[in-house]
Amino acid sequence: MREREQDVLTVTGLVQHLTRVIEEDPGLSRVWVQGEISNFKHHGRGHMYFTLKDDQTRIRAVMFAGNNRRLRFMPKDGDDVLIRGRVGVFERDGQTQLYVTHMQPNGVGELYVAFQQLKEKLNEEGLFSPTLKKGLPFFPRCVGVVTSAHGAAVRDIITTIRRRSRGVDILLYPVPVQGPEAPLEIAQALDQLNQAGEVDVIIVGRGGGSLEELWAFNEEVVARSIHQSRIPVVSAVGHETDTTIADFVADVRAATPTAAAEMIVPRLEELQIGLKAVQERLTKGMKQCLTDGRVRLNRSLDRPVLRRPATGLEQAEQRLDILTGDLVRAAREGFAPVRSRLESRTYRLKGHHPAFRVPRLKERLVRLQRQSKVGMTRLLREHRRRWQGRVEHLDALSPLKVMSRGYSLLYRYDGQELIKSVEQVQAGDLVRIRLSDGRLKCQVWGMEEDSNGKSR
């Protein structure tokens, strides 16, 4: 039940969905439809509303003013027409209708549709672009003519060219201009004229006829040969009211073959008249130019600089002297401080030059060596005096010195113990006596103490 509620659309939603579906269908964006007009109404604002029907159904159609202003006929009820447009939805009424962009009376049939389709195709490829159009030569040496050898067109072209100028050659390339073989032979003729390179411009065309008779110039092969031609091509097909694909692709379209010849070949008398007029204008211009030049020359000769050229030179020489003096003075004033600083630094630099410093340093070295020698001698003498004093002092304190005056030292015989008292020995002990000039080995026989309690 819930899924069913979600699937329910409003009328507006349904119509909008239908609109999107139709607009997104590429097959409905451009359709050709044949039918009969009914209920035709030409609105005051220029829009056309009508119904297009056949024997089974009908559909509403609208052709806006921007599109119907190019119509060559006024539609009415009962007209059998062939229209081109797109299918859309008028959402207010929820009604499907045709939006018509092109309309023509039905009767031209499939050829007209093929013409329009090929025209649109080549236009989209850019074959009709004005930027591709080549200019016609001013006075062609030779004109190539691609047309029937037995038609009135070739006679008109040759007669017109001969009448306007007998100095222009004509190279006729006869081809059939109608029938199934005509398109291919016309295209081959254009290609061969381009390969030969003998003509300066090509006229391709024929005299008037029905649409079927002119159809060879609506074939794609002819259009592409004209487009690929490096020689300018003039299309001259039928009369002024006839329009073919060749007219759109060609570099220039002429209303008739005679108009094409007049367009390409200028009249000799007109050229002579024009040349004479140009010659007169050139002569007049040259005279005027000479006159103006002479006036400017005289005016220039009257100028003081040309009458007395040395005057300006003298003034310039004087100004040059003044400026030279100013320059020298300014240079001196500007260089004086610099020269002073340079001389000062040069003098200081010379004072540090090795050639000047080395002798002074050598003298200083000799003086220092002499002073150090004297100082070392004095220092050695002082240390020697001190050393001798201390040696004498030590000699005075030496036990040997005392023993030389009759004193001796008594040691135990088997050791270094100095015996200083009679109490340290016993009778019969062996002792050693150190004299100033030798040693004695003795044995104690007895001991006597001094009267002051000390043994002797």
UniProtKB/TrEMBL annotation:
Which reaction equation describes what this protein catalyses? Exonucleolytic cleavage in either 5'- to 3'- or 3'- to 5'-direction to yield nucleoside 5'-phosphates
> EC number(s) in its UniProt entry?
3.1.11.6
**Does the keyword Nuclease belong to this entry?**
yes
What is one Pfam family matched by this protein? Exonuc_VII_L
Q: Give a yes or no for keyword Lipid biosynthesis in this entry.
A: no
Which residues are in the Exonuclease VII large subunit C-terminal domain?
Answer: 127-443
Please list the residue ranges annotated as the OB-fold nucleic acid binding domain.
9-104
- Binding partners and assembly: Heterooligomer composed of large and small subunits.
Task: Name it.
Answer: Exodeoxyribonuclease 7 large subunit
The source organism is Kroppenstedtia eburnea
Question: Gene name, please?
Answer: xseA
